[in-house]
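[audit] Reproducing an earlier prediction to check determinism. Same input, same settings, fresh worker. If the tokens differ from the archived copy the diff job will pick it up downstream; this log only records the rerun itself.
[audit] input (484 residues):
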Amino acid sequence: MPMQTLQITIFLAVTGLIGYLTYVKCRAAKHEEGDSVRAENKEVFLAGGGLTWIFVAGSITLTNLSTDQLVGMNGNQMLLLAWWELAAVVGLIILAKVFLPIYYQYQCTTTTELLERRYNNHHIRALIGVLFLLGNVFIFLPSVLYTGSLFMQTMFGVDLSLIVIAIAFAVVGAGYAVLGGLRAVAISDTYSGVLLLTLAVLVVILSLRAIDFDLSGIPAERLTLIGGDDDPIPWHTLLTGMIFIQIFYWSTNQTITQRAMASPTLKEGQKGVLVAAVIRLVIVPPIIVLPGIVSYKLYGDIGDAAYGRIVGDVLPLWLSGMFAAALAAAVLTTFNSILNSSSALYVCDIHEKYFSKNPNVSRLNGYVTAAFVLISLALVPVYATADSIINLIQQLYGLLSMPILSCFIVGLMFKNVDYRAAIFAVVLGVALYGFLSFYKPAPIDLHYIHLMFITLWSCVGGALLFNRLVFGNRAEFSWAASAA
């Protein structure tokens, strides 16, 4: 059935209220002054260094927690997927205690700027920036649009195609990213996050109540945290690649770290990150697995349609409209967060280095954002064919994540390493992971998380060996924090 008048009214009212409160907060904020390109970059991409810990925590939480998490993880309909969130707590602690002090020490606008400083060359910064862009534009942006559109279509039975709903999300999300920059993105994240987390917890309670809190009849393999070899997360992957996936995502990924780098002080940024870690430990795991498990008992194995269906069934009419607004806001904020960070990578790492040192940042941001939106919309139909969106995303991103992380590990831990050795390691890593993961028949019968672990340390070893044999340099241990 189509969305009823009450739902539409509440949906529009809540969405409009979030937009209005964001506008008021942005207008009252103190803006970064200065005519230099760096000052303009800081205002557009780092909110003028004005994010307090509340907005850092809120923005980090909602940037990650969107329909690709709620729909994708609940779509597996098993408890095991909670490990992604539990392991993320470790990744956030490492960001706060290890990486963030270094970013502040080097006064970075992008995470890749740190690589330029450590390798003393801008080409390595540009290469890693391009790899981040490829992941954002071809993997994360279209997956967010797809899962958000699928949720709306499934929950309310909207008689619109996925691509039409995706276009609506893309246009509004791009508006936030272009007109308000990171400040508007982070503020709207926080307001939306409070609403979304509250309603998501309510969905968990009402879902369990729908089955009288009785999980009997659900297969044991869907209720265990110890994954077997054929499960999405085998237990032994927690000992190899899982932690490095989390370090990459939370500590080097521009979309996440950008928020933590936008505080007035390091201490303020660290406080926000640690609060985000507490939220991820206590609140997030139940909301991304329990509704899916309950939906298995109620409807059977229905995959990525599980979350939208159970939310539509357990929430009363007026709350479903509010929840739709919260989910729409989550889609928008995740989408515009990735857009903003992608634009930052292009403007700071590529355009200013190779095309123009003094561009009109605001105008260039608009053009780049429009291009990224068009590409991501074109890929939405491709993601609609995936069996499990969350597993597809993780496996695809292995092509880029471990080669990128190897550059950070080598750059942060050693000096006297030629940037070309790091570039060699990236090429080696992409080729190695692609061969091990996608070549059929598989040369090594291992889970892709294990393959990420193998790829990472092959890249680190390859960079150091190439540096020694080809360039004659002996790498010297020199932790970045002590050499800034």
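[audit] rerun output stored. Observation attached for the diff report: The longest helix spans residues 162-210.
[audit] end
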